Amino acid sequence: MALKRTIIAILFIPPIVLIAGKGEVYFLIMVEAVIAGGVWEFYRMTERSVANPYKLIGTAVALLFPVLFYYRLHDYIYLLLTSVILGILVMELCRRGRKFYVYNVSVTLLGIFYLGWLGSHLVMIREIPAGIAGMEYRDGFNFITLLFILTWCYDTGAYSVGSIAGRHRLFPRISPGKTLEGSVGGMVFALAGVLIGRVYIFPFLEWWEAAGLALLVSVTGQTGDLVESMIKRDMNRKDSASVIPGHGGVLDRFDSILFNAPVVYYILVFFLLGD
Q1: Residue 152 has what pLDDT?
Q2: How far, in Å, CA of 139 to CA of 142, rounded?
Q3: Could you tell me the CA-to-CA distances from 68 to 23, 58, 64 in Å, in that order?
């Protein structure tokens, strides 16, 4: 399992990096594919419980967020949010032969925000230079690479150290496999990755900024992993799907990214790239 997991990760990294470097609509399409796969897996899992979410509507709305951010149509986001909330409530009012109305609406909206809203921050990070005068578009690749390195290094360290030396369970109620040793190992890997990357890719970061970001993202990434485990446990599922050998589903692979992307974006925009 570990070997298969490693091989698949190695195969996936080059195309992701290549597309991130190209940016523009190519990166938007990749993010849309991730969101579409993740939100569909989420809705399929919840259907096994009492919920009957509006899968097509929820998926379509989730996919609109990255598009609106990419084309900088921010004002339309408020219209979209208002329309979808009112629309789903009215649709549930008119739905026949169904129960658990609150669950249906809540699960539909959670899928939209969990995957669509959080996932759209990937596009927002890549497009940061478009909103800052004097910054080159290729700088967006450095920003998205910062997110990937922090997340991937943490995941690699947590999995490796946890498998070898894990003894003390971190959050047994939700995920018995996660260990304190693995979490610390992930932090060390993330810290080493960003400090090395700072020399070649992130010169705009002071060493203490890089270290602080690594520690913060280690916590949020682990939280994202635990949140997805919480959802799967509630739905009595081990994996969100089985589309990626050794990794499970799209949601299993990108659960940490969903939490880390907003953190990296707002830290960059409000603290590290400001005047």
Answers
A1: 94
A2: 5
A3: 16, 16, 6
